[in-house]
Design goal:
By secondary structure, this protein is α+β, with helices and mostly antiparallel strands. It has four helices and 22 strands. Helix 1 runs antiparallel to helix 2 and helix 3 runs antiparallel to helix 4. It is elongated.
Length: about 350
Amino acid sequence: MDRKGLVILMAGLLLSGCDSPQVQRIVARFSKTETVAERPPVRVKTLTVGLPESLPGQVFSGELEPEKSVVLTAPYGGTLTMLPVSKGQRVVGGQAVAVIRSQSVESALQIAEASLEQAKDANTRLQKVYASGAIPEIQKIDIETQLAKAEATAAAARRAKADGTVKTPYRGVIGELYVDRGVEVLPGQRIALLMDLSSLNVHIEVHENDISGIVVGTPAIVSVPALGLENLAAVVSERGYVASPVSRSYGCTLRLADAHPELMPGMAVKASFAVPEITEDPRIVVPASAVQMDTEGKYVWTVEDGLVRKVRIATDGYSGRGVVVRAGLEAGDHVIVEGYQKVSTGMKVIE
């Protein structure tokens, strides 16, 4: 019975004055049918078969990390007399982060400066005596050598004194402070973490079974669940070549195509790859999860003009990326790969 006939039947039952439970159940069932038909379209994810870039890869978990970061350390032991920055502060290149005072460094500078003054005075006196011809040239050369050594020693002592002021090598944000002002620090002790947040990368771990399909330049799609961001374009910028001895995975770095100010280091992300098959095989391949089965055989759900269709398929085994479809699909068909549990024939969906 078509829609018009159902409406006429319902109207006749109501006009007849029949209020039996059977009539009420029929009216309720038809009312429910009308409500379902008016539901908003369901959102699904589709795969355009026959296009190499449409084969979805595995989803990998990872986290955001700054493209550049450096731990600033103490050049030598001493007292941390100044710490003019705070965690989260934005700094520019060459800005002072900490000042370390070392008594031994200051003493070495004083000794070097005194030795330099002595060598300068000796050289001045010798030049006058040498001009009168009272001393040989070899003695003049020896005094000049002593002066050069004293100048080099003083210059090194001044650099050591200047190194006590720890400065930032580039613009960034102070991500962490490891010490407090007034404490005694050791040579090489960590003072602060500097992060360049102008560009964030995605770090993921790829298992040895999947690393062969990922190379530098492979495109990826990244989502950040904490911020509700999806479909962020990225590309593999670094591919690991040394596996973790525990997990047998390789670290890979993805570079995001666009900057997003709301992103923060350490946020969890999901990354997926659309890796084309490295083959000349023209067969159509779909993910195994998209293939359903009923009493009549195998089928997939497809989308055409926004409406769901049930398409019967014939398969021909498996390839490295999924089920090989021998008949039923053509290149360009949109197969539902996510959300197929919620659809039925004729339903409106949004891709």
